[in-house]
Design a protein that fits this description.
The N terminus is likely disordered. This protein has twelve helices and no strands.
């Protein structure tokens, strides 16, 4: 039900009604990427199985070298198995994305301001730097332990939250919930730096023309930028996920054994990347949806 503004309303009432409309619009906009994320989750589990196949002993003997073989394996597990690990994703993902987006806008104001026409290199570095810092802070305070839980449930058959938490804790205590974080941090800095910094730079590049584009075009730009971020950051993500999977192994042991088992750098570092591409449609919708909400809020 839409509310009409009363011309006699006091300013405080106007503010409340304005933000009530904005909150409703925000919820409506974010239902789209959230729904996409849930629908695409089976591809996320496929990616995790392919990415950790070289160190994961739970499915030893299974072949996850291709999308087709991994999908066949999941079919044999049953329909609901495709969503193993989805519940930590539900809790983690949407709050995580908006912590990142709100925090990015806040942190941008704490970076030095450079003239994009005269000091473009520093201007570019500032945009990427604010995005990178945002990604690391969000992972540290919110997202990373939930992602560890998701991987435990998706690839180790720890079917419940309690079982997954117990298994993770038994492998390393509280530090087990941050296992691999030092390898994840550089990857997060690359991904969020390219994604969020690139999004801002793209809007600056188009200037007034950006606002004249339709939503599909802006979504496509956000999707391409996000995929570039994933492409550059994916090797770091692969190493840290295998480190989470191979309890007791060091970074160098995971790296050497992974490359040797996979038969080369590309096969190891980009295992499951095709599933990552197919499941990443939410990224463009998220960026455009957040900007659409800001335009509505400020109207």
């Amino acid at each position: 039900m839409s509310a009409k503004l009363d011309a006699t309303a006091v300013p405080a009432e106007l503010v409340v009604m304005k933000y009530a409309r904005a909150a409703g619009h925000f919820a409506a906009l974010q239902s789209v990427p959230f729904t996409f994320k849930l629908m695409a989750y089976p591809m996320e589990r496929i990616r995790l199985l392919m990415q950790t196949q070289h160190t994961n002993k739970t499915f030893e003997g299974s072949n996850f070298n291709s999308l087709g073989r991994t999908i066949s394996h999941m079919k044999n597990e049953g329909y609901l198995a495709a969503w193993r690990g989805a519940s930590p994703t539900i809790v983690r993902w949407l709050p995580s994305q908006y912590i990142v987006l709100f925090l990015k806008d806040h942190l941008s104001g704490h970076f030095p301001v450079y003239n994009k026409d005269k000091q473009y290199g520093m201007y570019f570095a500032g945009k990427v730097g604010s995005g990178a810092a945002t990604g690391v802070i969000n992972a540290l305070v919110w997202a990373y332990p939930l992602d560890v839980m998701r991987q435990q449930m998706a690839t180790k058959n720890s079917g419940t939250w309690g079982k997954a938490a117990k298994d993770v804790y038994s492998q390393g205590g509280l530090r087990g919930f941050y296992r691999g974080f030092m390898m994840d941090a550089p990857g997060l800095m690359i991904f969020r730096g390219v994604q969020l910094g690139g999004w801002d730079l793209m809007k600056d590049y188009y200037g007034e023309e950006w606002g004249k584009m339709n939503r599909v075009s802006r979504f496509a730009h956000g999707q391409v930028i996000s995929l570039f971020g994933s492409l550059f950051a994916y090797p770091w993500d692969t190493v840290r996920r295998n480190l989470m999977s191979a309890t007791g192994s060091t970074y160098s042991e995971v790296y050497r054994s992974g490359v040797a088992t996979a038969g080369g750098f590309r096969n190891f570092f980009y295992a499951g990347f095709s599933a990552r591409v197919l499941s990443s449609v939410v990224n463009g919708a998220l960026l455009e949806g957040f900007d659409e909400w800001k335009r509505t809020k400020d109207a």
